[in-house]
Amino acid sequence: MVKTMRAVKIPCEDTIELHQVPIPEPQKGWVRIKMKASALCRSDLYRFHGQKVFEDTGDESFITPGHEPCGIVEKLGEGVDKVKEGDRVAIYLAIGCGHCEHCLSGNTVLCPEFKCIGFALDGAHADYIVVPQECCLPLPDDMDFVTGALSTDVAGTLYTACRRIGVNATKTVTIFGIGPMGMGGVLIAKALGARVIVSDINEQRLALAKELGADVAINSKEVDAVAEIKRLTGGRGSDCVICCAGNNIAYNQALDCAKKGGNVAFIAEAHGITIDPSAQFINKRLNVMGCWYFNCCDWREITDFILDQKVPLKAIATKLYDLDDADEAFRLFDSGKTQKVVFVWD
């Protein structure tokens, strides 16, 4: 008799279903992982609303979502030699060719043959997942599973962004958009010693950002955010800027508030943004970069930083759910009334 498991499916727009499907078997070089924590991401909501994140993934209607997970290795496929049964692991979301310059340097997300779990193949909002052994990131013994899940997309991305734009104790950092990614940016930037300014239109998010260490919170619905940031920095502008809001206003404010010669990291996905390159960054000699995910070779550095600096990532996991309540979990996360929503297993 075939053993089955629970798996979330998004068969059509605005529909979440929980299916019973066969427990997957790991192929050669792959492993099966029993899930312990799997966080919802904004990109899961693209699928929930009938939109595609990656244009070349084909029909995603019965692909299980979920790409921010942690679990325990339960079964090894033939030839697996990098992990063993019982290992606690986080999962790197990218599967690549394994031999191009990007894969060999740890930036598998840039591989020409890149595939993302939860989009091109079944993801982690299920009782089990199978992935190549190379996707297994060792979870420190003193890191819990929820923190481990949030250390991938959230902390991994924001730590990498902060490092690339030179965040340190001498810098003022401004973060636009204080959803889960932006809130992760607050935690990482404060742990690096920076002065942190946040801008959003949601008072609850702004209040939480202050609780988690932000030095100044600006409601851009009530004040001119760029003018206020320049006032707070003596007219210079912000040394470093991180944009975690994917809209035209936030993208423009991020460029406008940066000081001359400053650094700007764009994290939020956006399409059709209108900017003025000459005035906003060429003539200001800004360093503008896209920051998407992290290099898997940096995983040890990222987790060491989180543990050593006691970064309270679980503070943004504001709601934990059993997989049986997947529909409620998706709808709550979609409402914007929470930070991270995470599926957990006993």
Output the keywords.
Rossmann fold, Quinone Oxidoreductase, Chain A, domain 1, alpha/beta, seven-stranded mixed sheet
Could you give the count of β-strands? Answer: 17
CATH C-level name of the largest domain = Alpha Beta
Class by helix and strand content? alpha/beta
Note the beta-strand portion.
25-35%
Q: Report the biggest beta sheet as strand number plus sense, adding barrel if it closes.
A: 7 strands, mixed
> Would you identify the regions where 5 or more consecutive residues have pLDDT less than 50?
none
Named at the architecture level, the CATH assignment of the largest domain is Alpha-Beta Complex
Mean pLDDT: 96
What is the CATH third-level topology name of the largest domain? Quinone Oxidoreductase, Chain A, domain 1
Count of individual helical segments:
11
When the domains are counted, the total is 2
Radius of gyration: 20 Å
CATH superfamily of the largest domain, by name, is: Medium-chain alcohol dehydrogenases, catalytic domain
General shape: globular
Written as H for each helix and E for each strand, in order along the chain, the element string is EEEHEEEHEEEHHEHEHEHEHEHEHEHE
Kindly report how far apart the N and C termini lie.
Answer: 25 Å
- The share of residues in helices is 25-40%
What secondary-structure arrangement, pairings included, does this model have?
Layout: E1 4-9, E2 17-22, E3 30-39, H1 42-48, E4 69-76, E5 88-91, E6 94-95, H2 101-104, E7 115-116, E8 128-132, E9 136-138, H3 145-150, H4 153-164, E10 172-176, H5 180-191, E11 195-200, H6 203-211, E12 216-219, H7 225-232, E13 238-243, H8 248-257, E14 258-266, H9 277-282, E15 287-290, H10 299-308, E16 317-321, H11 326-335, E17 340-344
Parallel strand pairs: 10-11, 10-13, 11-12, 13-14, 14-15, 16-17
Antiparallel strand pairs: 1-2, 3-4, 3-8, 3-17, 4-5, 5-9, 6-7
Helix pairs in contact: 4-5, 7-8
